[in-house]
Amino acid sequence: MLLAEGVRLLPDKTFFIQLGFFLVLLFVMTRFVFKPILKVLELRKLHTEGEKKKIEDLAKRTEGLMKEYETKLTAAHQEAIQVKEAIRREGQEAGSKLVSESKEAAKNEIERVKKEITESATKAKTDLEKQAKQLGTEIAGKVLGRNLTGNGH
Is residue 114 in a domain? Predict the structure, then answer.
């Protein structure tokens, strides 16, 4: 009985009104809601991708700067080692030169003292020979009882 009373398979006029409201609502929602939301989402996506690219670029730049820093640090360390070695060599050379100069000065001083001793010994020998002659002459004069010096008689 229910079937016979009025089941209609064809749409009536309210269907077209509802379809009209739906299409108007769909147009309004698309224009004022969906498109702005999709636009914001697209801008957000572009902004996020741009920021990711900036981060990647900064990471690459940072990596390059770190490599450059490490290279410079290694070069500075090598230079410091070379400077240290140069200073050590200069110190050794200066020490060797000082020792050599000191040895030379000591050698010269020894030669000078030897020369003085030789001169003093020669002078003392000459003086002793004069004194020995004079003493011999005096002794001989006393033994003989007369003056043997060449200035008297």
Answer: yes
How far is Cα 135 from Cα 150, in angstroms, rounded to an integer?
14
Residue bearing tokens 């500075």 = 76
Provide the CA 54 distance to its chain's centre, in angstroms. 33
Domain count, the chain: 1
In-domain check, residue 2:
no
Half-sphere CA count of 60, side-chain side, radius 13 A: 5
Residue 147: CB atoms within 10 A of its CB come to 13
Tell me the pLDDT band of 7, cut-offs 50, 70 and 90: low
The whole domain housing 50 covers 27-144
Q: Is the pLDDT of residue 151 over 60?
A: no
pTM for the complete prediction? 0.43
> Domain for residue 126, yes or no?
yes
Tell me the per-residue pLDDT of 92-141, one tens digit each, with 9 for 90 and over. Answer: 999 999 999 999 999 999 999 999 999 999 999 999 888 888 888 888 88
